[in-house]
């Protein structure tokens, strides 16, 4: 189908805006928001999204651009995400400067996964389970989830979940939880890095330095996008560790 130059221009303007801002809210740019609902403009945007491995979705009064899982152009590459969450590529461990490793990256990703599982339902409920989590409780939650996997052979479980759970567990429990060790990366430090990253990305807010609260943006993305269809299966595979824990302890 041939499209008019004006239609292509409108679609391009929306696409560029989404690239720069991540979301297009009706309250901020109503004209551009309304153009998205023009059939021909939306068709052009769908084609652009397909070619660039993203999804463009309208959820209530906002339009989002969401990188696909295999997207390394708009989404973070693994090395970039590791740096974005953990900062510089060297950290002080036991008084020595050591490189941040993939194991550190796996740990912070696991923390994010657990936080999502605590905030949202994972079996098709499409509901939010809680409005906030106390920062002081996050460390306890992670410890409780990882304790069953310390120094155990969980190869089958790791294959199923695509997570190096035993490595993550041993790293978590080998890290000190004493805040007095300011130069050593503690469990609290890993939790803090994750929370600060989520806040920077507009996915959560840290209120009064005591609690983590998901934003409307995260609510919409998780409930309306991540917990639908094939993505629900993928997220469940990662989040539904409770049943697998029971298998390990049996």
Give the CA-based shape. Answer: elongated
Biggest sheet statistics: 3 strands, antiparallel
| Structure classification | alpha+beta
Question: How much helicity do the residues have?
Answer: 40-55%
Distance between the termini: 60 Å
Q: How many H/I helices?
A: 12
Q: How much of the polypeptide forms β-strand, as a percent range?
A: 5-15%
Strand order of the largest sheet: 1-3-2
The secondary-structure element order is HEHHEEHEEHEHHHHEEHHH
Q: Any idea what the radius of gyration is? A: 20 Å
**Average pLDDT figure:** 76
Q: What is the number of strand segments?
A: 8
Unreliable stretches (pLDDT < 50, length at least 5) are 229-233, 238-250
Which features does this protein show?
250 residues, alpha+beta, three-stranded antiparallel sheet, 8 strands, disordered C terminus
């Amino acid at each position: 189908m041939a499209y008019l130059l004006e239609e292509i221009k409108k679609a391009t303007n929306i696409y560029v805006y989404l690239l720069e801002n991540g979301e297009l809210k009706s309250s901020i740019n109503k004209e551009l928001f309304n153009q998205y609902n023009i059939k021909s403009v939306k068709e052009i945007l769908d084609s652009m999204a397909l070619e660039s491995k993203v999804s463009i979705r309208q959820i209530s009064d906002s339009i989002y651009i969401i990188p696909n899982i295999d997207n390394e152009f708009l989404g973070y590459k693994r090395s970039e995400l590791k740096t974005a969450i953990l900062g510089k590529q060297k950290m002080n461990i036991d008084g020595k400067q050591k490189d941040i490793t993939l194991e550190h990256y796996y740990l912070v990703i696991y923390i994010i996964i657990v936080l999502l599982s605590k905030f949202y339902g994972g079996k098709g409920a499409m509901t939010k389970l809680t409005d906030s989590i106390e920062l002081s409780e996050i460390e306890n939650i992670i410890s409780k989830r990882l304790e069953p996997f310390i120094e155990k052979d969980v190869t089958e479980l790791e294959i199923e979940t695509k997570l190096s759970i035993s490595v993550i567990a041993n790293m978590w429990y080998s890290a000190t939880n004493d805040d007095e060790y300011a130069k050593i990366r503690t469990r609290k430090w890993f939790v803090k890095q994750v929370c600060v990253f989520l806040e920077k990305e507009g996915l959560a807010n840290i209120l009064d330095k005591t609690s983590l609260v998901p934003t409307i943006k995260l609510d919409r993305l998780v409930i309306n996008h991540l917990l639908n269809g094939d993505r629900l299966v993928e997220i469940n595979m990662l989040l539904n560790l409770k049943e697998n824990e029971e298998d390990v302890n049996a």
